[in-house]
Each structure stands twice: as C-alpha cells, then as structure tokens.
Amino acid sequence: MSEEIISFLKSKFADSIIEVTLEDRETSLTVKKEKFCEILSTLKYIGFNHLSDVTCVDYIKEQEIEVVYHLWSHTKKLRGNIKVRISRESPSIKSVVDLWIGAQIHERENHEMFGITFLGNPNLSPLFLEEWEEIPPFRKDFNAREFVRREYYEKE
Amino acid sequence: MKKNKLEEREITPEFLLPFGPQHPASGHFYASIIIDGERVVELNPHPGYLHRGLEKLMEYRTHVQNCMLVDRICILDPFSNEIGYVNAVEKITGIEVPERAKFIRTIMAELGRILSHITWIGVNSMALGLDSGTRIAWGNRERIIRLNEIITGGRIYPCYFTVGGVRRDLPQGFKEKIMKELDYVEKQLNVYDSLVFENEIFIMRMKGVGTFGAKEAIALGTTGPNLRGCGVKTDVRKDESYEAYPMVDFRVVTMKDGDAYSRALVRRGELAESISIIRQLLEKIPEGKFRVIIPSFMKSPKGDTHFCCEAARGELCFHMVSDGSPNPYRVKVRGPSFSHTLSEFPYLVKGVNIADVPAIYWSLDPCPADMDR
C-alpha cells in the first residue's frame, strides 16, 4: 500500500487504525475489530481484489489472538496485511465470505486450528482432523510433543 | 421414491461416488461426489491424509533446522518452499546473502519448476489415459532428479538452501552438466507436444472443460499458472522480484480462455521460459562466497514478516512471527494448492460430466502434501 492509500484510509477511518508499518511494497495495518470489515471492503473496492490468506497468531501472554488478512492488488501490484486483535476467550469475528468466496476455506481451517468462530461463514465443519477432542491444536497452550507421547507411545 | 425389492433400500436419483484417496486417481486426497446420472451435483473435499502439522512442528525447531522441514511441504517442488522460508528468515533478521548464492538459488528454483511441470505432464496424461506421456515424462523427471543429486546430494528432498546462502558450492563442471540436461529437456519438449499437447484425445478432453473467468478466479483465490490461464498477467517473480530474478529477462506466459487446455499450455510455455532463465543465469553467475556463516541458534528480532514467492503451482507465502528466541513463534504457510483444490475444484466441477472430474482436477495441478501441510 502506498502512503496515498494510507492517508485515504486514515481520512475515512481515523480512530479505527491503531498502527501502520510502511515497507517497500508491503504495508501492515493494525485496526480495531469494530471497523475491520468496512476497511477490508474499502480496500477491495479500491483494487485489493485478491485475498491471499488468513493467518491467526496466538499471543498467549496478552490473551489475544491476532487475525491477519493478506491482500494483494493485481492492478496496483501492492500487498497489504490487515491485522485485527480479538480476545482469546471465546474468540469470534465477522466472516469476510461476502467479500471473497475464497475466504471460506481459510476461515474453516482457522476455525479448526484456533477455535475462532467466523460469524456468517456457511460451513465451519472440521477439515483436516478427525474426531478431535482436545483444545484447538495450533494454540500455544497445546503441547504437540506431549500429545504425541501420550497418544502414540503410552496408550495401549 | 421407488424401493428396490432386492435390497430394500431407497433408490434416489442422486448417488454418492468416492473420488480418491488411492494415489493414481487423485493423489492423497478424498472427495465425495454426489452425482445425478452422469452429472456432478456437488463435490465435498475431505483433505487431511497428509496433514502433519508442519506449522506447529516448526515452532519447536530453530530456523536452520526448519530449512529441512519446509521441503516436506510440497514433495514435487521443494526448492520453492526452501526459497520462501529462507527469504522470510533473512527478511526478519536482515541477513545479506552473497550474490553467488542468489544465482544458485534461482537456478535451483527454476530446475524445481521444470521438475514439477514435467511431473504434472506425467500425472495429467495418466488421468486422461495417455500412458505413453506418463512414461516419458516420469523418465525425464528421473534425469533432473539425478542432476539434483549431483548438485545438492539429495534426490527428492535436497535440503540445499540455508539461512545465509546455500549449503555447498556448485560441483565442478556444473555448467556442462546442467546445460546437457537442459538441452535434453528442450529436445523433449517437441516430444511432449506431439504426444500430449497436440494429441487429439488430449485436446478433446481438455478444451472447454473447467472454464472460469478472471474475476471468478481471483475471488476464489487462484494464483500462478491457473490464473495466468485466465489471461491475468501476474507473476510474483516479476511483480515482487526476489533473488536473481531482476537480472534475467523472461516472458510471463498467459492464455485467455481459462479452460483446462489453456492452463496446460501455460505450463508448457513456462517449461521453455524456465530453460531460458537457467541459461541466462549460467552465463552471468558470479564467483565468490556461496554462504555467510550464521550461528545455529541465531536469534531473530521480535516482530513479524511476510514473504511471497512464485512456486511452480502459484503464490507461496510465509508469514513468520518471531518473539526473539531462536525458534519462530509462528509460521503460516500459504500453499497454492490449498485454494486450488479446496475452493476452486468444487466450484469448477459443478454440473460437469463425471469423466471430466479427473481432467479438471489435474489441470489445476494440485499437490495434496502442500494442501494439508
């Protein structure tokens, strides 16, 4: 994202943008949860038409989960990462399926791995794991090594 | 609803047909297809046969150890995964890589692309019943794998790139060895043309099948050769040039129809482009150091970074978060096959004949290992 786009966003959503890091071709924006959907749809409208990925990061110390939307513009040839922090206890966030159909599968994966509810996503059924009963496995308090020992070495 | 007297079960017009997970049909991937007569009503993908939780495993290992783990993301295209990972680490730590290492990495990444595309010719021919194409392509793949072994020491998993450069220098007489194989592959391209790409069966099975427009393709998350088959001129190697790509001249191959045949022709065109890229790089490769030595338990500064590269199948991104320890705090891999198989494939097969399902599936060039991670 160029500075032009940042200033445009700032003029529209002044109090929702918390932090901006501007790099050569790639910009990261940390935004508030309340307005992130509007910011994403504005960005889509001005040309960021490709949702590359949805990443979740579990910050266990802060008791927060960060959801990152990676955007790419085929016309402007620019990349943008929109970060939203949500609470770790019963995390939920609005789905962006209405903006990009491709977001459905990314959100489904993140629902399985982090236990985040994406409100408005039509299908959040398990994707990779079968009959999973533990806490979501990519969270920081899930110990994969201990799980493997318990499940495959000690269990008869 | 009629009742079948023999089995006492309801006969409905719809029928559930399993696709996969045996290897020749689909790779390690299972999809349940609901069919009505010969038409596909709905396809539900069920991935997970190759899920290893690589992203979680990386959190337990150091950056240098992870270079070996990322190979396993996509078996057919290991160099692209390595290039993405080491670049993400170098971006977050600010390590400068010697010029020679950049050239070596680019050469190997392009060899990996040739390897992947040739394998694709093989499996796609297999899906369409063109067995001679399969045999010849897999035979040629073996020659490039041997070249891999000579240069890196590993056949399928090279573990060649490391943070700060490559693990060892190119062997003596590498130019002749690589040139010989390139000449051979270039000669074989004509064989592929006559056996596969200009084959009437291939054209009839692929043309007009699995068509989508550029707008739909972008909304579904398509990247790489599949998107270039819809006429969108996009390539991470050109748009966000990395490694030695700014120093070479190449064409972004595009086709405008957006069907399975255009996607096939894009890959055919990319084979020729990759050969030309490697030739240019071999001419220009500088002398000098091939790696900078970094400590094994190198700590990376706090923060996050995002690096994208063009794998053989499309856009491959690494999002890395670091908390200041030698291990990454979180790595997210965006594999190209994830969207290709799980969001485009079900979309494209709606309403087609069941015989077209393997043709559409393989025209997207999916890699189940990359999809599951």
**CATH-scheme architecture of chain B:** Orthogonal Bundle
Poorly predicted spans of chain A: none
Give the strand content of chain A: 25-35%
* Unreliable spans of chain B: none
- The 3D shape of chain A can be described as elongated
CATH class of chain B: Mainly Alpha
Q: How many strand segments of chain B?
A: 10
* SS class of chain B: alpha+beta
Number of helices of chain B: 15
Main β sheet profile of chain B:
3 strands, antiparallel
Distance between the termini of chain A: 55 Å
Summarize this entry quickly.
The complex is a heterodimer of chains A (156) and B (373). Chain A has helices spanning 3-12, 36-45, 103-114, 144-154, and strands at residues 17-22, 26-31, 50-59, 64-73, 78-87, 92-94, 117-119.
Can you walk me through this structure?
- The complex is a heterodimer of chains A (156) and B (373).
- Chain A is of the alpha/beta class.
- The mean pLDDT of chain A is 85.
- Chain A has helices at 3-12, 36-45, 103-114, 144-154; strands spanning 17-22, 26-31, 50-59, 64-73, 78-87, 92-94, 117-119.
- In chain A, strands 1-2-5-4-3 form a 5-stranded mixed sheet. In chain A, strands 6-7 form a two-stranded parallel sheet.
- Chain A has one domain: NADH:ubiquinone oxidoreductase Nqo5 subunit (Beta Polymerase, domain 2).
- Chain B has 373 residues and is α+β, with helices and mostly antiparallel strands.
- Chain B has one domain (5-372): Orthogonal Bundle (Cytochrome-c3 Hydrogenase, chain B), CATH 1.10.645.10.
- Chain B contains 15 helices and 10 strands.
- Chain B has helices at 23-26, 54-59, 63-69, 78-93, 99-128, 131-152, 174-197, 200-206, 214-220, 224-228, 236-239, 260-284, 336-348, 356-363, 368-372, and strands at residues 2-4, 9-11, 14-19, 30-36, 39-46, 161-162, 165-166, 303-310, 315-322, 330-334.
- The longest helix of chain B has 30 residues, at 99-128.
- The chains are: A alpha/beta (156), B alpha+beta (373).
- Chain A binds chain B through residues 25-26, 28, 49-53, 55-58, 68, 70, 72, 74, 77, 79, 81, 100-106, 109, 127-130, 137-138, 144-145, and chain B through 47-48, 51, 53, 55-57, 60, 218-221, 223, 232, 234, 239-240, 304, 306, 308, 315, 317, 319, 321, 329-330, 332, 334, 338-339, 342-343, 347, 372.
